[in-house]
Write a structure and sequence with these properties.
single chain, 204 residues, alpha+beta, Ribosomal Protein S5, domain 2, Alpha-Beta Plaits, four-stranded antiparallel sheet
């Protein structure tokens, strides 16, 4: 199987709402690039919804979709975080955090009712979100002498590489982004040019 170098995520925050027996489930979906962002979103929502009883969430991270976490925040185990995550899984989204804020309406919903409520609120938020496809890109740095500038810039243009940062002096450095599916072709061209030093930095 070829490496799939695209993934689906949401472009901007979105909200969804589900009501059942007086309880209100407000779902907030956020684009997420780092686990450290989760806390800030939780703090903000807790400050805005001081009367809410539960702030349950799930997220998925990384293009290969293998980083995830669920939190039931006091709801019976498996009734909140897991249904939120399962909804993200079935939509095949990653780099997304969904927090569902529950205002308790006085009537217990039972396990099936809770699972349905958290799942439906999450699905509503996803429905409101604009879903986008992103490619998985590697960031590399190439350094070379000024005299090689034309050759390097031609390669950048022909391969349609996105330049992230550049500095031109006697020694020049260009940081560029290359799509995973193009990677071997681009690296081969760079290796063929003498005097270019290439360094892998990170993947986005």
């Amino acid at each position: 199987m070829l490496f799939d170098d695209t993934y689906k995520t949401i472009e901007a925050p979105a909200e969804g709402l589900f009501r059942d027996k007086g309880s209100k489930f407000m779902a907030f979906a956020y684009p997420l690039s780092d686990e450290n962002e989760v806390k800030a979103h939780l703090v903000k929502l807790r400050a805005e919804h001081t009367k809410a009883n539960h702030f349950c969430y799930a997220y998925r991270l990384s293009p290969d979709r293998n980083v995830f976490r669920v939190n039931d925040d006091g709801e019976p185990s498996g009734t909140a975080g897991r249904p939120i995550l399962n909804t993200l899984l079935s939509a095949d989204l990653t780099n997304v955090l969904v927090i569902v804020v529950r205002h308790f309406g006085g009537t217990l919903l039972g396990v099936p009712g809770l699972i349905n409520a958290y799942k439906t609120a999450t699905a509503e938020a996803i429905k409101q979100a604009r879903i986008v496809s992103r490619s998985v890109n590697d960031i590399y740095e190439v350094s070379f002498e000024y005299l090689m500038m034309n050759d390097v810039m031609r390669l950048v243009k022909e391969e349609d590489l996105n330049i992230v940062e550049q500095q031109f002096d006697n020694n020049c450095v260009i940081k560029f982004e290359v799509r995973k599916s193009q990677l071997n072709k681009v690296l081969l061209r760079i290796e063929k040019q003498e005097g270019l030093k290439l360094k892998y930095l990170y993947t986005v």
